[in-house]
Amino acid sequence: MTAKVSVIIPIYNGQNYIDEIFRQLLSQTYQNLEVILVDDGSADDSAKTIEEHIRSCVSKKGTDGMVFKLISQQNTGQGGARNRGIDEATGDYLLFMDQDDRIKDDYIEKLLGVAEREGSDIVISGYEHVTVSGEVREHVELINNAWCRFMNITPWGKIYRRDFVERENIRFLPVPLGEDIYFNVLSYSHTLKVSYTDYVGYQWVINDGSVSNTVHRAVSEESHILTLFDALAGMNGADKWMRDEQFGFFMLKTGIFHILYAAKGTDAKALISYRDEVFRWLNEKMPGIERNRLITFKGPEGERSSVARAIYIYMKLRRLHLDGVFLRVFCIGRG
């Protein structure tokens, strides 16, 4: 393989992760890489540390096929930083990585191999959810079916053909919640050349200080799930998605899980009001969604059993008009 892969990594106050990022990239079995590190308005010495590593790499032999680029900009959030990376990329493929996550040494080679062999615009793989010490809390391995599109809806764990992304003008939403979901659903809308692999080489590290564990903890204007839902409903071809059974289950799942996640920092009254907003939107835009046939104890084929059961139980409570009671108890228990 001779294709060049552009690896895009948003950096925000990530000085403590830089050493590990460079170690992992330099250890990759595939070396024809353009590594784009977008320093998104960091207040620490992230940019300085990256510059030092780049100088060190240039002075050493053995990295001839790898190019590092540092881009500094005012803070725009992960979506904006990834968009800047796409704009600057020159590779044949795009691959995204978060600053605090980890990849196995053959990760890029494996995903690129599938893309080249199958002529894919997108290759989707599974992931491991791990602690900082490396303990695997969850191993998500994909099977080859359509639900895999929604099993890993993040930009990481995938590789994208760059000319496809550019041709269709696919970009992230400039918001802190759901920017990655929008990017991937938009991608799926424009191609049927999607491949799946049961290979797992990406490790999503549990980080209490991440955006998902801070901004998303409470209902707020910037983390309102309906911002994402409105953007999805406004896509070209959205009518087809709104009638799709699997997409309906995914939207229901996303709404419910964000209601539960936002409960971590929201009082009961505000949470109930938020729930009402979310379900009003879902029922207006996707009539019949609460009767989706995939709401079963097993869920769609390939879905994790814990997730399928959670959606099934929540919807059982809702049909009995008990989900409000559950949410109030949930808030009391949290306190």
Total helical segments: 13
Shape: globular
First-last Cα distance: 55 Å
Show unreliable segments.
Answer: none
Q: Looking across the biggest beta sheet, what order are the strands in? A: 3-2-1-4-9-6-10
Q: Whole-number average pLDDT?
A: 92
Q: CATH first level of the largest domain: which class?
A: Alpha Beta
CATH superfamily of the largest domain: Spore Coat Polysaccharide Biosynthesis Protein SpsA, Chain A
Helical coverage, percent range:
40-55%
**Biggest sheet statistics:** 7 strands, mixed
* CATH architecture verdict of the largest domain: Alpha-Beta Complex
Order of helices and strands: EHEHEHEEHEEEHEHHEEHHHHHH
In brief:
The protein is of the alpha/beta class and 335 residues long.
General description of the model:
The chain is of the alpha/beta class and 335 residues long. Helix content is 43%, strand content 16%. The strands form two sheets. The chain has a seven-stranded mixed β-sheet. Strand 7 (127-130) and strand 8 (136-140) form a beta hairpin. It is globular and about 65 Å long. The termini are far apart. The model has no long low-confidence stretch (mean pLDDT 92).
Features:
single chain; 335 residues; alpha/beta; Spore Coat Polysaccharide Biosynthesis Protein SpsA, Chain A; 2 domains; seven-stranded mixed sheet; four-stranded mixed sheet; 11 strands
